[in-house]
Amino acid sequence: MSGHNKWSSIKHQKGIADAKRGQLFTKLSREIILSVKQGGGNPDGNARLRLAIQKAKDASMPNDNIKRCIEKGLGTADGAQMFEAVFEGYGPGGSALMIEVLGDNRNRAVQEIRSALNRAGGNLGADGSVSWKFVQHGIISVDGTGLNEDDFMMQALDAGAEDISSSDDGYFEVVTAPSDLEEVRTKLESAGIKIESAEVSLVPTTPADIDEKTALQLLKLIDKLEEMDDVQHVYTDVEFTDEIMEKYESQ
User: Fold this and answer.
1) Which of 99, 101, 150, 160 is the most buried (most CB within 10 A)?
2) What is the spatial distance between Cα 66 and Cα 93, in angstroms, rounded to a whole number?
3) Of all residues in the chain, what percent carry a pLDDT higher than 70?
4) Between 3.40.50.880, 3.40.50.300, 3.30.70.980, 3.30.460.80, what CATH number should domain 83-132+208-242 receive?
């Protein structure tokens, strides 16, 4: 598959094991709450809520936690008003960054993100400065253990996938139109295929290339950003090689 940033899927696969579970649940909870506030508490009529619940289940969030988040979203005494935004910026080597934020204090979020970017040799950009480098795709990650690659690819295409790729660590990545993500996932699961994750992601149209030292600096910055409570997702236009990922993870 041309142009996809491997970081998003690799990050997800290792993220649940590595991240502080409480911090992960905080991010997922905020997404559920805001989804309810915007579209109501019935998943059948709220596509964003359906996706948020599924992502929470993929991360093994208990059903009781999910229920409480929905109830909080429906309540009126819910404390601080939440906001969501996408900040654009530059990382080491001029790499492009799209930073999705969901929190309760915009000024704090901007200050923390700007500080992290500046320390890494980057900076915040104006709206539209890098967003033109990305497109939205649905990305489904599948554990390929026990699957025949040719048979799976035919199943995925028949389910409505736009593209499929395989990785050296045994995973398949299925690309869909954002609006087709739920349908393709449902069809694959109905065929007995185990889904590791499914989400709408920002994918670079033309991946950038930077040297190894700069790539390692960028990975460190992405980790720093994703550790922030207000940051939901970070996307970059850099495609990291397996060798760079292995070197970073061994540090």
Assistant:
1) 99
2) 40
3) 89
4) 3.30.70.980
Domain edges within the chain = 7-74, 83-132+208-242, 134-204
Mutual angle of helices 21-39 and 7-18, in 10-degree steps: 120
DSSP 142: E
Q: What is the pTM of this model?
A: 0.81
User: Same fold for the domain at 7-74 and the one at 83-132+208-242?
Assistant: no
**DSSP H stretches of helix in the chain:** 7-18, 21-39, 47-58, 63-74, 106-119, 149-158, 181-190, 212-226, 242-250
Distance between CA 92 and CA 218 in Å, rounded? 6
Contact (CB, 8 A) for 93 and 219:
no
Contact 216, 244 (CB under 8 A): yes
pLDDT digits (tens, 9 = 90+) for 21-50: 677 888 889 899 989 988 889 998 898 899
Helix (H, G, I), strand (E, B) or coil at 12: helix
Instruction: Name the token pair of 58.
Output: 């993929």
pLDDT classification of 250: cutoffs 50, 70, 90: confident
Average pLDDT over residues 88-97: 96
DSSP sequence for 207-236: -B---HHHHHHHHHHHHHHHTSTTEEEEEE
Mean pLDDT of the chain: 86
Instruction: Return all residues near 241 (Cβ < 8 A) that are at least 6 apart.
Output: none
